[in-house]
Amino acid sequence: MGRALLEAAVESARTGGLWTLQAGIFPENAPSLALHRSVGFRDVGILERIGQLDGDWRDVLLLELRV
């Protein structure tokens, strides 16, 4: 179901005239990273201490897809 939702979001972006989609994902979230990469997202870099989880500031991996 997650793949279908992500593919629909990508198609909607294309149809709507957007040219870049970005995602910020915790680096240890392997399933989400694999899903995004499987539809064409690529790693761009690390945003340091930008996401918060359980009160701790965490690094986030930035991915993007040019649609």
Compile the SSE list and pairings.
Layout: H1 2-16, E1 20-25, H2 30-38, E2 42-53, E3 56-66
Antiparallel strand pairs: 1-3, 2-3
Helix amount:
25-40%
The chain-level structural class is alpha+beta
Q: Which overall shape is indicated by the principal axes computed on the Cα atoms?
A: globular
Q: What is the strand arrangement across the widest sheet?
A: 1-3-2
Over all CA atoms, what is the radius of gyration? 13 Å
- What separation lies between the terminal Cα atoms? 21 Å
Estimate what percentage of residues fall within beta strands.
Answer: 35-45%
Low-confidence stretches: none
Order of helices and strands: HEHEE
How many strands appear in the DSSP assignment? Answer: 3
Q: Would you give an account of this structure?
A:
The chain is an alpha+beta fold and 67 residues long. 36% of the residues lie in helices and 43% in strands. The protein contains two helices and three strands. Strands 1-3-2 form a three-stranded antiparallel sheet, covered by helices on one side. β2 (42-53) and β3 form a beta hairpin. The longest helix is centred in the first third of the chain and has 15 residues, at 2-16. It is globular and about 40 Å long. The protein starts with a helix and ends with a strand. The model has no long low-confidence stretch (mean pLDDT 95).
